[in-house]
Each structure stands twice: as structure tokens, then as C-alpha cells.
Amino acid sequence: MAKQQTRSWIGLALALLVVAHTAALAITAAAQPAGTTASTTSNNQAAAASLKCFEAIRVENDEIERPPAVTGHSLIALSHALWMYGGIIHWENGEKVEYGHVLWTYETDDNTWDRTFADKGPAQPLRVNETVDVQYGDSWLVARVVEPKRPDHTVRVVVDVPTKPLDLVVARSKIRYYPPAMNMHVAVGTTTSTGVPVMYIHGGKGQKGRVSSDLWMFVFERAAWVRVLPKTSEPAAREMHAGIVIDRGLFIYGGVRGQTNFEDMWHFSFKDSTWTELQPAPGPRPPPGWGHRLALTTHETRGRQTIWMFGGYNQTTGINELWSLDWATRQWTLHGLNGLAFTRGAESLFDPTSDALDPDRGAAAVETTADEASVAERLTSAEEDDGLPAGWWYRRPSRDMAWPAARKGHSMTLFEGNLIVFGGHGRVDFYDDVWVYRIADGVWIGPIPCASAPPPRNYHATAVLADSLFIFGGNNVQGLLKDFWRLNLKKIASFAQIQ
């Protein structure tokens, strides 16, 4: 036995030496099926270092108008085009400019951006201080409504120009209608029951810090905005929440307004125009927070739908917890290392009367043969240095397991059974890392050291077309960003599968 162990150690040392000094052999080995030896692990790391995940997208023609530096905006994919909406006020050439109301279109076929001006849309009641486009001669100006309904069926608006505000009285037919400038809102793309592509946006923060609870719909074919008036009470105004389309409606969770962190979840029915507050099943649930991200999975055969949520912040604490919500039962589950679940504080993962993990206590469906006493010895309080959720107990796995740091304002994308996380902002740092969570076996892979990664950022906007994740803008310590990138999801997913 001793001779066999000696030969194994010698073989392992030789393998590591080959990896260190022979790049060609490392690349060849990385292409082979993953094993458990140290040499295979090193070769996979070498392959990752040369993995060209990102590609910068540049518009070569300087005469083509393109979006400015922006953050807190949204990006929706439709056919071969991307639609970008919203964003915060920023400075350009020494002047304060508001781009939040502009809808931009990117055509992937010819690599061009274009501004889309909304049609006047159906007749709707205007409100004081709403933002509209007003026809003034041959031009369209951005204006603010002062008197929405005058006796002669005209509308009085004010155009805020640098020199002197322009006070106008115009016919309703000369007004184009759209939401007030918003950032940190929720935006989703879907189709109506008749197959018409639309985009919904909800909430966000607008001018003068106003946080909204409004719901708007943009009809792409008509380039028209419609304010959706719900038939029921609606969620409290909020920003930095997350949303996803499910069950012919819009699901939203969490968010923040001032010092209030939300942990409620709502569903808006597109068909009935009604909001419903959803109550979770008894058991553990995510903490209040904002800046988190959602993704949706559907079981291939049973059709069971699951909403996944990662990250966020709650005023004082960053969150790196991964939760899933069973849509049918409304049951939240917290996912831990190797699929094991966490539990808060000193609560046990285990049924005190048996040696099995207790699902009613939020534990994963994993059994153990250890009695409670020996299990308690193997439980360790998660410290901040571990990069694991503080205040949670967990079972240490037999080997070290990577785990993404707590963050907010990141992106999370579902692709081929993987949750792919990019960027975000922690307590101090901005991130440019890529992480993959393999849903099938509950394992995090990362960070994947992609070559030529974009600068770190948070609150960027992303959308998926085919096997590419398009990334635009965001912000970091340098300020607002206007760079444009493509992440090859196929390469990321393929690499994660061999780890």
C-alpha cells in the first residue's frame, strides 16, 4: 500500500510539473473529461485563463447616434434587436441632461443604435408634472405638463431650456406620451394574448427623487406607451426591486423606498389588470432587500416552475444567499454548498427526534446517518471571512467550495441549466467576475477568469439573444459607463460543465 501511495504522489508531482511548464499539454488535458486528480484541476484552470468570454462591441461610425453613459437602465431583447430604456440624470459637456425617458434600439444585424420616439398613443388623462414630447414646428421637445386639461381641450406645458423656460399651450394631438424618466425600475418583455410584443416597466425612481408604483406598457409595433391602470390596490412605490414574467403576469419581489426594505411579493395579471399580493408557505424566506436578481426555470417534463433569486442588500448587510421559490407551493428554499441548505442562528437543520434533515426547518432533501450530537460538532458558524452568509449555520463539505461574494446590482442569467452571475457591487468593491451555479447538482463554479473582461461595474443592463449576453453601461468608481459588451454564454456553460 505504501509503495502505491508513493507512486501516486510521484505521478501527481510530475503531472503538476508538466502543467507548469508545458502549455500545449495543459490545453490538451483540459479538453479531456474532468477527473479528480490535481493535474486535471490545474489544466482546467489553465484553460479558463485563456477563455475568451467577452467581446467589446464598438460602433465604428462616429456619425451614428448612440446612448450616453448611463446606469439603472433596462435592456429587453426582441427578435434581432435590443431595446434600452431609462437611466439616471448625468452631466455631459457641462450641462445637466436627462436621458431617462429615451428608448434606444440596437440592431444586431448592422451594429447601429437609434432613438425611438413614442407615438402619441391612445387618449389618456395626463397628470401634472408628467413628461411628454411636444411638437414645436418641425421638432419634438421634451416638456413638463402644467395644465393637463384646459376648457378648450388644449394642454399647457413647459419646456425647460437652459436660457428661459418655454411656456406652450398645445393641442392634445401634438403630444407624444411616455412614462416619467425612471431608473432602477423593473422591465420585462412579453407578448399579449394575441401575440403582440410588448414591454412592461414598473416602479423606479424619477425626477426629484420621486419613487413610483406606476405600471406602463410599451407596444413595439405602434411605438406607443400606455399607462396601465390596475383594477385593484397596487404594491407600495419602490425601486431596485426585481421582476420576472410568469403565469401570464409580472412577478416582483423586494425593493426599497427610503429606509424601508421590502420583502413582499406581488403578481400582476396581464389579462385581468389586477395586482395580487402572494403569501409564502410557512418556513424560511429571504430577508428584506434590494439590488437582487431573478431567473426562471421550468421543468422539462413536469412543467414545474421555479424562481431563483441571488444577492442583494438591506441597508447594512450585503447578501450572497441563493433562494428558490416553488411557484406552485409558494415555498422558499435556501440553497447552500453542494445543495445543502442553511438555517439561521442556532436553529438546527435536523429533526431533534431523528437523524434526518427536517424539510419543515428549511433543510435540503439530503439524508445523513450521523446522530444529532456528531452533526452538531460538524456544524460551523459562517464567518464573514468565509464569504458565506453571516449568521447562518452550514455543514462544511469534504473539500473547499467556491462561493460568490455578497453583491447588489449584478446580473443573473439562466442558460442551459446554469445561473450565470456577472459583476455587481459589494460592501466596498465593484466586481467584474463571472460565476456559474449548476442547478442540477447545486455547485458554484468560479470565479471564471475570462480573458479581457470588462471593467468592474454594477447596475448595468443585460439581455440575452441566442447564446450571447449583451451588457451595456453601469457605474463604478470612475463614474457612469457607456461601453457595450457581449458575453459568450455557450463558452461559460461548456467550461462549467467539465469542472
Automatic annotation (TrEMBL):
Record's keyword terms, sorted: Signal
Signal peptide: 1-24
This protein's record includes keyword NAD: no
SUPFAM superfamilies registered for this protein in UniProt: Galactose oxidase, central domain
InterPro entries cross-referenced by the UniProt entry: Gal_Oxase/kelch_b-propeller (IPR011043), Kelch-typ_b-propeller (IPR015915)
Domain of life according to the entry: Eukaryota
Record bears the keyword Metal-binding: no
Name under which the protein is recorded: Kelch repeat-containing protein
Organism field: Capsaspora owczarzaki (strain ATCC 30864)
Source organism phylogeny: Eukaryota, Filasterea, Capsaspora
